[in-house]
């Protein structure tokens, strides 16, 4: 199957999944008195809401035709898509989303490396396209894992979440973390449909993990932003940390995840203890983004 045909099929799957989540009442349609044969909205109901023919909509779901920008707008409105879902829909259709497409960069700037090193009490990571781990500071290595010991071509956050058993212990809410990782990966896959690394990652995880395969086909999408994560750490115990995303204007495919704790809380105290522990047990230098444990940004964690 060609790349274009695969994207049309993905668009059809996405439309079908979204209409299955809606009810006639949710979109202002009368509920039929007889039992419905399908979950969610029928095709003809979506077509009516989007002011297109049922046959046209059916062919869209079957991946047989392309939709114009105005039709995509109407479908996004009819299906009550979120901003993230609407962006994903347009990217699957190959329509402009208002942002220029840029080549994914894996090298990070010296300024960004310096920022990571100057966050002594905040674990921080730089992630790239497909959630590849490009750089990290020493406290991130102490909190999560020894990234430097992972071969660079396998250094990917989603792969770690699904294939490293330690992640299921580290994250008490592992399922929620894993689901969010899949939704973020969906967004990247739509932005970079011809990225062989990303396509290979999806194939690998679909083969290796049933949960990933199920959630990937669920077609849920979500952009990176902010939130809270719970950790169960083998040295300092339980922590609840807030995370925020910083976007790099000079490298739009790179973003920084910074984890912090409210001062005076047990989690803040635990981070300070972890930083002291790392200063004793880890090298004083921190690992470099594109190295395999050599250079100014590497930090093994013997946990």
UniProtKB/TrEMBL annotation:
SUPFAM superfamilies: lambda repressor-like DNA-binding domains (SSF47413). It comes from the Bacteria. Gene3D superfamilies: 3.30.450.180, lambda repressor-like DNA-binding domains. InterPro entries: Cro/C1-type_HTH (IPR001387), Lambda_DNA-bd_dom_sf (IPR010982), MLTR_LBD (IPR041413). This is Helix-turn-helix protein. GO terms for molecular function: DNA binding. Residues 40-85 form the HTH cro/C1-type domain. It comes from Kutzneria buriramensis.
């Amino acid at each position: 199957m060609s790349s274009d045909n695969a994207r049309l099929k993905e668009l059809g799957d996405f439309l079908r999944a979204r209409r299955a989540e809606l009810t006639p009442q949710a979109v202002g349609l009368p509920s039929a008195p007889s039992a419905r044969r399908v979950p969610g909205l029928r095709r003809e109901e979506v077509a009516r809401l989007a002011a297109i023919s049922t046959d046209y909509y059916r062919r869209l779901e079957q991946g047989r035709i392309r939709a114009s920008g105005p039709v995509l707008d109407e479908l996004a409105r009819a299906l009550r898509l979120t901003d993230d879902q609407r962006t994903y829909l347009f990217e699957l259709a190959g329509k402009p989303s208002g942002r220029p497409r840029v080549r994914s960069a894996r090298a990070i700037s010296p300024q960004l490396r310096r920022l990571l090193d100057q966050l002594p009490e905040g674990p921080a990571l730089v992630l790239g396209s497909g959630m590849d781990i490009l750089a990290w500071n020493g406290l991130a290595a102490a909190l999560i894992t020894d990234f430097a010991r992972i071969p660079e071509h396998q250094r990917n956050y989603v792969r770690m979440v699904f294939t490293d058993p330690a992640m299921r212990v580290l994250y008490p809410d592992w399922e929620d973390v894993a689901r969010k990782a899949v939704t973020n990966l969906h967004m990247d896959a739509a932005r970079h449909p011809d990225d062989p690394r990303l396509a290979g990652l999806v194939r690998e995880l679909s083969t290796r993990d049933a949960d990933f395969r199920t959630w990937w086909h669920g077609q849920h999408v979500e952009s990176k932003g902010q939130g809270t994560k719970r950790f169960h750490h083998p040295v300092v115990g339980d922590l609840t940390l807030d995370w925020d995303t910083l976007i790099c204007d000079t490298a739009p495919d790179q973003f920084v995840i910074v984890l912090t704790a409210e001062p005076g809380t047990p989690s803040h105290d635990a981070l300070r203890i972890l930083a002291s522990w790392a200063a004793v047990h880890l090298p004083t230098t921190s690992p470099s983004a594109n190295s395999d444990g050599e250079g100014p940004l590497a930090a093994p964690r013997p946990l």
